[in-house]
Design a protein that fits this description.
single chain, 483 residues, alpha/beta, Rossmann fold, TIM Barrel, 2 domains, 7-stranded mixed beta sheet, 6-stranded parallel beta sheet, globular, binds iron/sulfur cluster
Amino acid sequence: MGDVDVLFLHPSTRVLTAEGEVVRYLAIPMGTFALADLLERSGYSARIVHTGLERMLDPSYRVEDSLRMLEPKLVGIDLHWYCHAYDAIELAGCVKRYSNAKVVLGGMTASFFAEELLSSFGCVDYVIVSDAELPMLELTRAVTGDGDVHDVPNLLYRKGSVVKGSGRAYVASGEDLDKLTCSNIRLLKDWDLYIRLIHENDALSPKLKTQGWLMIGRGCSVNCSYCGGASLAHRSIFGRQRPIFRSPEKVVEDLRVFEELGISCAYMDFDPYPDRKFYYRLFELVRREKVDISSQFLVWSLTDRNFVREFRRAFNPLYTTLTISPETGSESVRLLNKGFYYDNQSLLRWLEMLEEEMVPVELYFASGLSGEDVEEFKKTMRLGERILRAYHNVVGASCSPLFLEPCSPRFLMPKKYGIRLKFKRFSDFYEVYRCFAEGAVPPSRLGYETEHLDEPRIIELSSKFNEMVNSLMMSEKANPMVE
Ligand code: SF4
């Protein structure tokens, strides 16, 4: 089956525990599917291998098996999320040891640290900085013998010890996104298992729910302090001034393919404008086209009742939920950290409205926010408990310690947000995930401490919240009628 033009290798986040290796964060960036499909439609052959999934299926799996079988000319490794910092480089090293393929990295983390990646790791030939569609097409053309890599837009490469670029820039528009198809997940080896496991990363036991991530657009209109995908990052990395959307028609085409592939729930995490004009058109089309699928929709701000009704009418209720991240019970902390602010009373009224509309909801909280101390976190505990006791449509609530995200406002302006950075370079992210993969204790787990809280305390606060949630859920199971 050799002679594939481009092989996309998805890295894994491996954690070595006393019980053995666990693979975390299974999702593949949506753009990887779009790129592989774009290459296929342009006359090249492309495949995707999820190395973590393959290791879960067969612990003796080695990436060299895929390289030998497919003999790619170019290997694309997504380094979008920082949690793949270590494994992306490990994979690049393997490609160099076991094949003659060129290695290109892309994604937000790779874009942000492009120069360091090329200066420090000889196994990385190229980095695509920002949008990758046209660059990947031109790079493939060049690597397969018909073009010059030095002319590829958004591409950085090494010449001797110097990092260089073509000087050509490409910023994708909404029209460009409309030329993409994001649902060709059959290009992924073992895709049928992937859609079962993408929402469950703790065990390889097929679940009834199957999920696909839906590409709706790119960018954000606000800046949450902790987010590496905020407006600031899109402006500085991508040169994108405002969010862009695909057309509702293209999104529905992908939903239709999801349905045909047996995907029961579409994961939708793109909500940059509170007026949500785009979604009214999309929901109408989903209904008109009679697409039968559930939606896990992550709202980035509170919605009105009309939106909730239209949402509920559009999707199969089986796995349909709304998810919101208030992050904290402290209004002053929320104001400092979140781009879309709402007070607690508004949040509670919104939950009440969702209960009336019979829409299940999940909530995410965080510890380690700027301006948060132990007293402020007590407000998070109180709000979480109040919500869980009062609203029966809340199907999940959890709290996580914030991890330092590259290119987030806190990373770029630590003083303004009252944090001390422990991670500054790519090598810091690489090191922490190397430690996780090898079962060692990393020098820092979160990459920062705040002016009020050190790392152990931040981690402990999240644990306390989750213990409270578990005990409330257990007591509700034991006494379902007790309020
Ligand atoms: S709303 Fe906040 S968390 Fe969501 S993408 Fe925008 S900046 Fe990031």
